[in-house]
Each structure stands twice: as structure tokens, then as C-alpha cells.
Design a protein that fits this description.
single chain; alpha/beta; seven-stranded mixed beta sheet; five-stranded mixed beta sheet; 41% helix
């Protein structure tokens, strides 16, 4: 074994994102290979049997595993500091697998009420179809987490910062409550990214990502990742993924591998831009409120400082004039594009009340702080001065 193979755990993220998980073919290629294949050939019937008994290392079928996908998984595990990772076709496949693989009829889930619409659908509507009950709480209120625990509680779930209002949940404190109740904590870490927040180090048991967002970060491919320990993988996740088949394609895995090489450069630049834009917006007369985890004005700034090493790339801003004011500003933007995606190289803005969270009633949206003037801004790689000028003219500055 070469010396560099022995020190992977000590690599800085920038190094792991370039070299981690690489599997070379006999040709010794510098760029990782794309193994576009459904199946694999065995040397003998005995070897095929051993593969299916997990006695012989190697690949069987690309629904189970694939060399290109495995490289992506190992690189993500190094980035996150996780024992293992498993890739999925989408971020929602990752969240669904992380939660439902460990829950059975008669179990109970406690989840934060401030969730992406599809995530809330999983716990509030889909899980109950299988006899799994759910209680929604204000994720910022530790007493509500404690009060929601039942004898059959098996899973805690939240995202932090939340989509789209950027509320921050105390991961370590909620993990302590979950473990005292005999439950596991699943954290959706998409907005913070692995660059600025490490939920596993803070006590979470499972972390889920939409790789579609910052990991690809260039608007090309769908994907998701679940990160956990070996016990959770073997007991729950692996068989769920194997039998239900939310498989990431080798092509998408290859694109994600290439994207990870520039991940830290892209996300750190986006976060730098976001901090400048948030500071500008906080003083703008057309803005009612600005929420950014890297700002001292954030409602949970103390928790942000405790568990995040940076403010990341997302800003929530409330435009004066409600929906009419928000629409007017969005429609005047030139550089910043209207899209419900995020974490992209291009700056993107969306109006959550009419897009990502439109399926909620107005009462629920008000409860979550998703008012008609609220916009969610995903900051990209453009020059910060150009983005500020675009926002200023759109707001009538």
C-alpha cells in the first residue's frame, strides 16, 4: 500500500475532493473512468456464487453497485468524514431511503415542521400510509422535541438551515434528545453543505444530500447521497436501496466526481458573494428582512457560530409590498435567473409561496414564515458587484 493511501483520513478536503475514491483501470487513466454497464462477468460459477454471498469482493449488477458510483460514494464519505456513503438517483430518493429504510409500521417520527415541501410530504403523508405516525415540531424549540417523544419514536428528522427561511436547528442538542429516546437523527445538510457543517461530528446518525445542488453545482445532473456508519448501512440502508432500486447512473456519478474536484473552490466563492450581498440587502430601503446564517443579525446567530464554519450560499429576503413587490423585483432581474433550483454556479431566485411551497395552505406558510414577499436567493459564482448592482436596479435603487 502506498503511503498516500494510508493517510487519506488526514487529507484536507481540497485533496480528498481531487483524489479520493479513485479506482484506476489497467490503462492508468488520470480522469476517472465511466463504467457504463448493467452487469459484470465472473470468472467461474463459483466466483458468481461467492459474489452473491458477499464472500468475494467485486461488482454484480449496477443496480447494486458500480465502479464509477463507488468512486463518487467514497469521495463523498471522505468529504463528510463519514464511514460510508451510498448514492441515489435524486436528493428526494436519498431522504426517503434515509428515513423509511429504518422505520416500520407502528413506529413514530418526530420532524421539524420547517421542511422542503417534498420532505414534509414524506413524513406527513407518505409514511402514515405504511402505519408510521409523525409529529411536527418547531425545530428551534428543544422543549417541543422532548415533548413529542413517544415510546415508539424511532427517527428524528430536520434540515438546517431550513428551506426557505434559513432557520437553524441546534444539531448537537437535538441529537442528545433523540439518543436519550432511543431514536436516530437524520439531518438534511443541503443548505449548509459539507464544507460549512458536519452533522455527524455534532451527533447526527445519518446525513442526506441532494447532490443536484452544490455537489454538481452546475445545473446538469440529478443525484443524492446518504452518509452513515457501517451498522446503519448493513442493518437498514443497503437492503432498502438494493431492493427498491433508486440507483444513480454511472454517467451522473462521473459528472459528480468531476464536480467535486472544484466543490470547495465554487462553494467558498459563492459563500463569499452571499456574505457581501446579505450585507448590502440589510441596508436596502425596499427590503423588510434579510436572513443569512453568516450575519450577526440571524435569529440563531449563536447556534450558527457554534455549528457552522461559514454562512454558506443561501439568502432569504422579504421584499416590501408582498407578492406584488416580490414579483416586480424578480421580473426586473437581469443576471440573476428565476429558477427553483439552488446551489448552482448561476445565481438563482425563487418565490417559495408560489413554487417550492405552493402546495401548503396559506395558514401553514404563515406558520413557517413563508410570507408573500419572501424570496429565496441562491448565490452563484458571478462577481459580487454585478450581483449587487442587479439586485439594486431590480429593487428600484
Amino acid at each position: 500500500m502506498k503511503d498516500e493511501d494510508m493517510t487519506k483520513a488526514n487529507w484536507h478536503p481540497d485533496t480528498a475532493l481531487v483524489h479520493g475514491g479513485s479506482l484506476r483501470s489497467q490503462w492508468g487513466e488520470t480522469s476517472e473512468s465511466m463504467f457504463v454497464t448493467q452487469g459484470f462477468v465472473y470468472n467461474s460459477a463459483e466466483q458468481a456464487e461467492a459474489r452473491f454471498l458477499n464472500l468475494d469482493p467485486g461488482f454484480q449488477y449496477s443496480r447494486f453497485s458500480n465502479p464509477t458510483v463507488t468512486m463518487f460514494e467514497e469521495r463523498m464519505a471522505l468529504l463528510e468524514g463519514a464511514p460510508v456513503a451510498r448514492a441515489t438517483a435524486t436528493g428526494m430518493a436519498a431522504v426517503t431511503a434515509a428515513i423509511l429504510s429504518q422505520a416500520s409500521a407502528g413506529d413514530h417520527i418526530v420532524a421539524a415542521r420547517a421542511l422542503f415541501g417534498s420532505c414534509r410530504y414524506i413524513v406527513e403523508e407518505l409514511a402514515p400510509r405504511f402505519g408510521i405516525t409523525c409529529t411536527l415540531v418547531d425545530g428551534r424549540d428543544l422543549d417541543q422535541w422532548r415533548a413529542a417523544v413517544q415510546p415508539n419514536t424511532r427517527v428524528f428528522f430536520f434540515e438546517s438551515p431550513t428551506n426557505p427561511t434559513l432557520e437553524v436547528v441546534d444539531i448537537a442538542a437535538v441529537a442528545e434528545i433523540a439518543h436519550a429516546a432511543g431514536a436516530r437523527l437524520v439531518v438534511d445538510n443541503v443548505f449548509a453543505t459539507a464544507l460549512y457543517q458536519k452533522p455527524l461530528e455534532l451527533g447526527a446518525d445519518v446525513v442526506a444530500y441532494s447532490a443536484t445542488k452544490h455537489i454538481d453545482g452546475q445545473g446538469r445532473c440529478m443525484g443524492g447521497v446518504v452518509l452513515c456508519n457501517e451498522e446503519f448501512l448493513e442493518k437498514y440502508l443497503q437492503v432498502f436501496l438494493r431492493q427498491t432500486g433508486p440507483t444513480m447512473s454511472p454517467f451522473n456519478a462521473w459528472v459528480m466526481l468531476k464536480a467535486l474536484e472544484t466543490f470547495s473552490l465554487r462553494v467558498s466563492r459563492q459563500a463569499e458573494n452571499a456574505a457581501k450581498i446579505a450585507a448590502f440587502l440589510e441596508g436596502h430601503p425596499k427590503i423588510e428582512k434579510v436572513i443569512y446564517p453568516g450575519s450577526a443579525s440571524h435569529p440563531q446567530a449563536d447556534i450558527c457560530r457554534k455549528q457552522m464554519t461559514g454562512g454558506s450560499t443561501m439568502i432569504a429576503l422579504e421584499v416590501k409590498g408582498g407578492r406584488e413587490g416580490a414579483f416586480a423585483a424578480v421580473n426586473k432581474l437581469g443576471i440573476i435567473k428565476i429558477s427553483n433550483n439552488l446551489g448552482d454556479a448561476k445565481s438563482l431566485v425563487t418565490h417559495p409561496s408560489t413554487t417550492t411551497h405552493q402546495r401548503f395552505t396559506e395558514e401553514v406558510r404563515q406558520e413557517l414564515g413563508i410570507r408573500q414577499g419572501l424570496l429565496r436567493l441562491s448565490v452563484g459564482l458571478e462577481h459580487a458587484d454585478d450581483l449587487i448592482a442587479d439586485l439594486d436596479q431590480a429593487l428600484g435603487g
